[in-house]
Design goal:
The complex is a heterotrimer. By secondary structure, chain A is mainly alpha-helical. Chain A has one domain: Orthogonal Bundle (Helix Hairpins). Chain A contains 3 helices and no strands. By secondary structure, chain B is an all-alpha fold. Chain B has 2 domains: 96 residues, Four Helix Bundle (Hemerythrin (Met), subunit A), CATH 1.20.120; 49 residues. In chain B, 74% of the residues lie in helices and 0% in strands. Chain B contains 7 helices and no strands. Chain C has one domain. Chain C is 64% helix and 1% strand. In chain C, helix 5 runs antiparallel to helix 6. Chain C is globular. The N and C termini of chain C lie far apart (76 Å). Classes of the chains: A mainly alpha, B mainly alpha, C mainly alpha. Chains in contact: A-B, B-C. The interface between A and B is large, with 72 and 87 residues.
Chain lengths: 103, 190, 403
C-alpha cells in the first residue's frame, strides 16, 4: 500500500461517512455537515494526487483545493441561511417534517 | 531494494514508519471525528466533532506539504464554517427536541448505500494502476510566491469569478436570513 | 547546522546550538525542538505574571488609588498569592454542565494561544518555526480561539454564559477582518507572508532611520487599526463587554472556578502578548532598532521592550476609555474599520508606486510621498466620520454637581 493508495482510501472512507450521515440524519443542519464532509474528502483526494501522483504541472491540485474551500464556504453560508429561513417559516428544521411543498 | 543490506532495509522501514505514523494517527482522528459528527445525539456535540474532523484534515494537508491549503482549511472551515454551523444550531433550537429518534426511519438504506459507494471507491483504488505504481515523484514545492503568481497569471479568471460568487453568496445569505418587515408579513397573511 | 558567533544578540541561539551539538545523534531533533519550545512556555507565562501586577498597580494609580501592596514590597509578589489562590480553590462544575466540553474548553484556548508564538521572531534568527506563510498561520490559530470560547460558554449550561459567548464570538469574528486587512497592506509591501522575512525587510536603514512600516502614513494608520482590532480580538477593554463584571457577570467563564479560571485569564493575556508581538513584527520592525546607532542593544531586548510598551498602552487604554456597547462595537467594526482598512491598502499601493527620488532629491521625494499617502488616508477618514455621525445631534454637555 503506497502512500497515494492510503490517502485515497482515507478520502473514500470519509466520503462514505459523510454520505451516510447526509442520508440518514434528521436534522437539516447535519445533512449540510455531511455534505461538507464529502467536499472535504474530495479535497483530500486532490491533495493526495497533488503530492504523490504524476503531474506535469506543479500547482493544479493545490489551486483546485483552494477554490473548493472558497466555494464550500459560500455554499455553507447560503445553506445555513436557507435552513434559518425554513425554520422561521415551519418552526422546525427536521427534514422529515418539511416534506410537502404546500405551506 | 535488493542491493541493500538488512540494516539499511530496517532503517528505511523505520524512516517510512516515521513518515506514515503521523499520517495514520491524523487519519484515524479525522475519521473518528467524522463518524462522531454523524452519529452523536446532541447537535452541538456533532458540530464540535465536525470541527475536530476539519482540524484533523488541516493537519493532514500540512503533513502532505500543502501548507497554504492546510492553513486556509483551518481559517475557513474551523474558524468560519464550524462557527456558522454552531450559530445555526443555536438559532434553530436544534438541541431541544430530544424525544424523537435522531435517525430517519429509512436510515438503513442510507448506510447500505454509503457502504456500497465505499466498496466501489475502494475497489477502484485497489485495482487502479496509479495507486500501485510504487513510484512517488518528488514532493512538489508550493511556495507562497508561486501560488501568488499562479493566482495572478494562470488562475486569475477563477479568482475573479470566486470573488463575484462570494459577494453574491454573502448578499444572498444575508437576504435569506433577514427578518421580514412586520407589514409585509401581515399583508401576506391576509 | 552553522555555528553562530557568540554575541549578546545571539547568546540564546549559541547556547541552543552548543547544547544540541553535544547530544547524541538520534536525540538531536527532539532536543532541538524542546529547547525551542520550553523557553516560550516559560518566558511568556512569567511575563503574564509580571503583567498582572503591572496592570493592577497601573489601573490603581490611574484610578487614584494604590494597587495591591500587601504581598512583598510594592505588591510585586502578588502573582504568587494569586497562583496559590487559584490552585487551591475548589473546582466547582455545575451538575447539568456538559463535563467533557467544560473540561476541554480552557485547554483548547490555552493551546491555541501558545501555538501563536511559533511564528513570532523574538530576535535575530530566533523564530521558533520559520513558516513560509507565518502570518496566515497566526490568523488560522485565532480561529481555534473562537471555537474554544463557544465551548466554554455553551457547556456551562447557563443563559448568561451562552449570551456572553455569542457576543464574544460575534465580536471576534467582526474584528478579525480589519485585523487581517491591515496586515494584508504590510504583506503587500513586503512581498512575503513569512514573519522572519517581513522583519528583515524592515531592518534596513537609510541614513540612521530604519525602514519600519509604522514610519509611513499607511503604516501608521494600519498600526492604529491593527491595535484597535487586536484590543477587540482579545476582549480587552474597551471591548470587554463579553466579560465585563458589571454587565454580564463575567460572561462565558462564569461557571469556571479555581485553576480553569486562571487558565482563561492566562489565555487572554497570552493572546494579548501574541497579537502585540504580531503587531510589532508587522509594523514596528520586530527585533530591529529604530536608529542605526542603537543597534548595539540586543535584538531580543528590543522585541521585549516594544512588547512592554504595547502592554503599557493596553493597560492605559483600559483605565481610561469606558466600555463600548455591543451595537456600538459592531457598528465600529463594520462601518468604520473595514472601509478604513481598505483605504489603508489603497494608500499602501500608492506609496509603492510613487517614486522615491524626485528630481534627484531624496528628501523632497519622501515629503511628497508622505503627503500624498497621508492625504489618501486622511480624506476618506474625515469623510467617513462625517457621514457616520450625521444623524447624531451632539449638544454641549452640562454638568450638574452635587451641592
Amino acid at each position: 500500500m503506497n502512500p497515494l493508495a492510503g490517502c485515497l482510501l482515507v478520502s473514500a472512507l470519509l466520503f462514505s461517512v459523510g454520505l451516510a450521515g447526509a442520508l440518514t440524519r434528521r436534522s437539516a443542519i447535519l445533512v449540510l455537515a455531511g455534505i461538507e464532509l464529502m467536499l472535504n474528502a474530495a479535497n483530500l483526494n486532490f491533495i493526495g494526487f497533488w503530492r504523490f501522483g504524476p503531474h506535469p504541472e506543479a500547482l493544479t491540485g493545490l489551486m483546485f483545493v483552494i477554490f473548493a474551500i472558497a466555494v464550500a464556504a459560500a455554499e455553507a453560508a447560503v445553506g445555513l441561511a436557507l435552513i434559518l429561513a425554513i425554520y422561521r417559516h415551519a418552526d422546525t428544521s427536521d427534514v422529515s417534517d418539511i416534506q410537502e411543498m404546500k405551506g | 531494494m535488493k542491493r541493500f543490506g538488512a540494516a539499511t532495509k530496517s532503517r528505511l522501514k523505520l524512516a517510512r514508519m516515521r513518515t506514515t505514523l503521523p499520517f495514520l494517527i491524523l487519519a484515524i482522528l479525522t475519521l473518528a471525528g467524522g463518524v462522531a459528527a454523524m452519529t452523536l445525539r446532541r447537535l452541538v456535540h456533532c458540530a464540535l466533532a465536525l470541527a475536530l474532523s476539519f482540524a484533523g484534515l488541516a493537519a493532514l494537508y500540512l503533513n502532505l506539504g500543502a501548507e497554504f491549503a492546510g492553513l486556509a482549511q483551518l481559517l475557513v472551515y474551523v474558524g468560519a464554517i464550524a462557527i456558522l454551523i454552531v450559530f445555526a444550531i443555536l438559532l434553530t433550537r436544534g438541541d431541544e427536541d430530544q424525544a424523537r429518534h435522531p435517525f430517519s426511519p429509512a436510515g438503513w438504506a442510507g448506510v447500505a448505500l454509503a457502504l456500497a459507494v465505499f466498496g466501489v471507491l475502494g475497489w477502484a483504488v485497489e485495482t487502479s494502476a496509479v495507486a500501485h505504481s510504487g513510484a512517488t515523484g518528488p514532493a512538489p514545492t508550493a511556495t507562497m510566491r508561486s501560488i501568488g503568481f499562479a493566482l495572478m497569471q494562470r488562475y486569475v479568471l477563477p479568482l475573479e469569478v470566486i470573488a463575484l460568487m462570494l459577494t453574491a453568496a454573502m448578499i444572498g445569505a444575508a437576504l435569506l436570513a433577514m427578518r421580514e418587515k412586520p407589514e409585509s408579513a401581515r399583508s401576506r397573511a391576509q | 547546522m552553522i555555528a553562530p558567533g557568540l554575541s549578546v544578540d545571539q547568546v540564546f541561539v549559541w547556547v541552543k546550538h552548543w547544547l544540541v551539538v553535544r547530544t547524541p545523534a538520534p536525540w538531536q531533533g527532539l532536543v532541538s525542538i524542546l529547547l525551542t519550545i520550553v523557553p516560550i512556555i516559560v518566558v511568556f507565562p512569567a511575563l503574564f505574571a509580571v503583567t498582572t501586577v503591572l496592570e493592577r498597580k497601573g489601573l490603581g494609580r490611574i484610578q487614584n488609588r494604590y494597587g495591591p501592596n500587601r504581598v512583598g514590597p510594592w505588591g510585586i509578589f502578588q502573582p504568587l498569592a494569586d497562583a496559590v489562590k487559584s490552585l487551591t480553590k475548589e473546582d466547582i462544575v455545575p451538575r447539568s454542565a456538559d463535563h467533557v466540553v467544560h473540561y476541554l474548553a480552557p485547554l483548547v484556548l490555552v493551546g491555541a494561544s501558545f501555538l501563536a508564538y511559533a511564528v513570532l521572531p523574538i530576535g535575530r534568527n530566533m523564530t521558533a518555526v520559520n513558516l513560509d506563510a507565518g502570518v496566515l498561520f497566526f490568523f488560522a490559530i485565532g480561529a481555534g480561539t473562537e471555537l474554544a470560547v463557544f465551548m466554554a460558554g455553551w457547556s456551562s449550561r447557563n443563559k448568561y454564559s451562552l449570551l456572553g459567548a455569542m457576543r464574544a464570538i460575534a465580536q471576534m469574528v467582526s474584528y478579525e477582518i480589519p485585523l487581517i486587512l491591515s496586515s494584508v497592506a504590510v504583506v503587500m509591501i513586503a512581498g512575503t507572508l513569512s514573519t522572519t522575512a517581513i522583519v528583515e525587510r524592515q531592518a534596513r536603514y537609510t541614513g540612521t532611520v530604519a525602514h519600519w512600516y509604522v514610519f509611513t502614513p499607511w503604516g501608521l494608520a494600519g498600526f492604529i487599526l491593527f491595535m484597535i482590532a487586536a484590543t477587540a480580538e482579545t476582549n480587552r477593554s474597551p471591548f470587554d463587554l463579553p466579560e465585563g463584571e458589571s454587565e454580564i457577570i463575567a460572561g462565558y467563564f462564569i461557571e469556571y472556578s479555581g485553576f480553569k479560571f486562571a487558565l482563561f485569564f492566562l489565555a487572554e493575556y497570552l493572546e494579548m502578548f501574541a497579537v502585540s508581538g504580531l503587531g510589532i513584527t508587522l509594523f514596528l520592525g520586530g527585533w530591529s532598532s529604530p536608529m542605526s546607532w542603537l543597534e548595539w542593544i540586543p535584538s531580543w531586548m528590543w522585541f521585549f521592550g516594544k512588547l512592554l510598551a504595547l502592554i503599557v498602552g493596553f493597560i492605559w487604554i483600559r483605565g481610561t476609555v469606558p466600555r463600548l456597547r455591543m451595537d456600538q462595537l459592531m457598528n465600529f467594526a463594520w462601518k468604520f474599520m473595514l472601509p478604513m482598512a481598505l483605504v489603508v491598502m489603497v494608500s499602501a499601493g500608492v506609496w509603492r508606486f510613487l517614486p522615491a527620488v524626485v528630481e534627484g532629491s531624496f528628501a523632497l521625494g519622501l515629503v511628497i510621498r508622505w503627503l500624498v499617502c497621508a492625504l489618501v488616508v486622511l480624506l476618506p477618514y474625515v469623510a467617513l466620520a462625517r457621514v457616520l455621525e450625521q444623524g447624531r445631534k451632539i449638544e454641549k454637555r452640562e454638568y450638574r454637581f452635587a451641592e
